[in-house]
Write a structure and sequence with these properties.
Layout lengths: L23 H24 L1 H8 L3 H18 L3 H8 L1 H18 L6 H15 L6 H8 L5 H30 L3 H20 L7 H5 L3 H24 L5 H23 L13 H16 L1 H13 L5 H13 L2 H14 L2 H19 L12 H25 L5 H43 L3 H16 L5 H42 L14 H14 L1
Helix pairs in contact: 1-7, 1-8, 1-9, 2-3, 3-6, 3-11, 4-5, 5-6, 5-9, 7-8, 8-15, 8-16, 8-18, 11-12, 11-19, 13-18, 13-19, 13-21, 14-21, 15-18, 16-18, 17-18, 17-21, 19-21, 20-21
Organism: Bradyrhizobium aeschynomenes
Keywords: Membrane, Transmembrane, Transmembrane helix, Transport
Protein name: MFS transporter
């Protein structure tokens, strides 16, 4: 938040209404734990989906809808959580859902009826969706200003940490504890979160004034619109987009609901999330940069682990150590460095360094071949770790520094859409991009085979001779089959090359947008120049005088 003058130590910011708890650090610990739990749960569900399909005896289509229901329901509720916490109090919005979440997490592994499983997955996702959006609110309410930046850094870095450790965690659960722990970790952590919420948040009365003037229509329309659009995009790759009436109905329905949301916010006497909050140049650009961050970071979230799984045929427990050692552990050093830089350097410069690291990692990824093994990705993963540490936190600081305190709830709604909806929609679109590019490259490579290319003929002759020498009765047929497998492998490699190029250009686009963001007004996040620089500035000023 950006008041016109630097805030005092006692000023808790625009979200500081309500009583203070005796142990505010418990509240901050609760929401940070909830943030990690939300990200880990979402990642564990997606990475561990093959194991879940086998455990629940689900077909491919049923498993795909299970994942869509679990994440889409989070998107449905997330934009409204900040408003709900303002009206009903943090204790009611976080404490009670966390206990229900623990119970649902305990039950799900025992369910075998598919309709019941989908219903519980939706409830599970909606409860999970309440954990993250209230984090910034609690940080501003309960911590002194000097602790805002470290707390927000933990909130921001949970994304990269979850991406880099979830693959290893899935492998550990499945191999040693059982797939049920993909859900049961919430049974252990959610009650702890509820206890911390109870100890760290005050017992606030319901804000009946806001409740009486609630914009329920706006909240339902926006959440439903974004959730339907996500579901359409997530299922589009599987159902072939325009060829599916289900996908078209979801996308069209989501678009209509979003238009109705805009109309509702324009006509409502007290709009919940009026879209004019986006008309601020710096706010609009910051939200766009957050969206580009979620897409650029797909090189970490999707491309590296998926390449290792698809091309090198590694299980999560085999590829997860790469992301854990070279992606997650460096964050322990990089996050304090990022905090130090933000205290003394303009956040825009830190963002530039972060996106430059992402661009370098993706450019490096465009050199991969089918021969690349796990260790060949070490440099890329390290650069991605640098990008994670130096990108999302300063973007959030830029957005908060330029936001209007009077529109905090509106801003919270839109940042949740960019944070959660952008990331999940990006994953869905990346899956489609890889599929389409693989088909294109397969077609081009197939043309060379059909035309009788000299290299193809030599390859077939060599393979036929190999199988014939080993007593193969169907040597020629086996040679053709082996060549077809190699063509598909190379088409997949070329598709990943295209994906790395796409992420590279998205990072470049983000750098261009950052260049358009102007300096934020003075506020609690304004950097303090280093002592040497400040002394030089004072000497220069006295000389000029």
């Amino acid at each position: 938040m950006a008041p016109s003058e630097p805030a005092s130590e006692s000023d808790r910011g625009p979200l500081s209404r309500g009583g203070q708890a005796a142990q505010p650090l418990f509240a901050v610990g609760a929401v940070l734990l909830g943030s990690f739990l939300a990200n880990f749960d979402s990642r564990l569900t997606s990475v561990g989906l093959p194991d879940l399909r086998g455990a629940f005896s689900l077909g491919f289509d049923e498993g795909a809808w299970l994942s869509t229901a679990a994440i889409g329901s989070q998107i449905l509720i997330a934009p409204a959580v900040a408003w709900l916490a303002t009206v009903f109090g943090l204790r009611r919005v976080l404490g009670i859902p966390s206990l229900i979440y623990a119970v649902v997490s305990l039950i799900i592994p025992f369910v075998r009826d598919y309709p019941t499983l989908i219903t519980l997955a939706i409830i599970h996702g909606m409860l999970l969706g309440t954990f993250v959006p209230a984090t910034l609110m609690i940080v501003f309410r309960n911590l002194p200003i000097r602790w805002w930046l470290p707390a927000i850094s933990i909130y921001a870095i949970r994304v990269g940490f979850a991406l880099d450790t979830s693959t290893s965690l899935v492998g550990f659960y499945v191999e040693h504890l059982g797939w049920q722990w993909l859900y049961w970790q919430g049974v252990v952590l959610a009650p702890l979160m509820a206890l911390m919420v109870y100890l760290g948040t005050p017992a606030e009365p319901v804000n009946r004034t806001l409740l009486e003037n609630a914009d329920w229509g706006g909240m339902l329309l926006l959440g439903s619109a974004v959730a339907m659009i996500y579901a359409g995009l997530d299922q589009g790759n599987r159902l072939d987009w325009l060829q599916s009436g289900t996908v078209m109905a979801l996308l069209a329905g989501g678009a209509v609901l979003f238009v109705l949301f805009l109309v509702n916010e324009a006509l409502s006497p007290q709009p919940w999330a009026h879209f004019n909050v986006l008309f601020s140049r710096n706010i609009g650009l910051s939200l766009a940069v957050i969206l580009l961050y979620t897409l650029t970071s797909l090189s970490n979230a999707s491309l590296v682990p998926n390449f290792l799984a698809t091309i090198t045929q590694l299980r999560p427990e085999q590829s997860g150590s790469l992301l854990l050692i070279y992606g997650a552990l460096p964050l322990i050093v990089l996050v304090p460095l990022s905090i130090w830089m933000l205290r003394h350097v303009d956040a825009r410069l830190v963002v530039v360094l972060g996106f430059s690291a992402f661009a370098a990692a993706n450019l490096w990824g465009t050199q991969l071949t089918h021969a690349w093994a796990r260790e060949d990705f070490i440099g890329i993963v390290v650069l991605q770790s640098i990008g994670q540490a130096l990108t999302l936190l300063p973007i959030i600081i830029m957005a908060l520094s330029n936001s209007d305190p009077a529109r905090a709830t509106s801003f919270a709604a839109y940042i949740q859409i960019m944070r959660l909806g952008g990331a999940e929609i990006g994953v869905a679109l990346m899956g489609t991009w890889l599929r389409v590019r693989e088909q294109v490259h397969s077609a081009y490579l197939g043309l060379n085979i059909q035309s009788g290319d000299v290299d193809v003929a030599r390859a077939l002759q060599r393979l036929t001779g190999y199988f014939a020498a080993h007593g193969g009765a169907q040597a020629k047929a086996r040679a053709v089959g082996t060549l077809a497998v190699q063509v598909q492998r190379e088409a997949n490699v070329l598709a990943y090359l295209d994906a790395f190029w796409l992420c590279f250009w998205l990072a470049i686009a983000a750098l261009l947008l950052v260049a358009l963001i102007t300096r934020a007004p003075p506020g609690p996040f304004s950097p303090t120049p280093l002592g040497v620089r400040a002394a030089r500035m004072r000497r220069f000023g006295s000389t000029a005088t």
